[in-house]
Each structure stands twice: as structure tokens, then as C-alpha cells.
Design a protein that fits this description.
76 residues, mainly alpha, globular
Length: 76
């Protein structure tokens, strides 16, 4: 099952944001959250907020377990 979340009107250049998105592509959620917390880039905070939103959607709306979630795709 796929769960989607969108982030609009982020005022950071897409080239800079793609660097952070590439770091977490394909990781499981817990590893991705840890990676974003310790990444020293300005775009890591909004992407972390987006990831937490997607995880919350998966847990609350679809009754999925947070520990079994992975990031299949992330696009900027």
C-alpha cells in the first residue's frame, strides 16, 4: 500500500533539496528519520516534517506499523 504526502511552496532551491531527498530514498523510516536529524542542510527540516506527516497518515488512516514502512519514492 502506498501512502502519499505533499509539500508545497518550499522556498529552497530544488537542486539543494534533491541532495537531501537522495539520502533517504530507499531507506526504512527509522533510519531515514535519524539521517535527517543529523544532516546539516537547510532542507532537511522540511523533509523531516513531510516524512513525519506521511508516517502519521500511514499509521492513523491505514493502520500500518511504523517499523515496517520504507520510503519507496521521494521526488522534488
Amino acid at each position: 500500500m502506498e501512502v502519499k504526502a505533499n509539500l508545497k511552496h518550499l522556498r529552497i532551491a530544488p537542486r539543494k533539496t534533491r541532495l537531501v531527498a537522495g539520502l533517504i530514498r530507499g531507506l526504512d523510516v527509522n533510519k531515514a528519520i535519524n539521517q535527517l536529524k543529523f544532516t546539516n542542510k537547510k532542507s532537511s527540516e522540511p523533509i523531516l516534517k513531510l516524512l513525519n506527516s506521511a508516517v502519521s497518515n500511514a499509521v492513523n488512516n491505514y493502520d500500518l506499523d511504523k517499523n515496517n514502512l520504507t520510503i519507496k519514492e521521494i521526488r522534488v
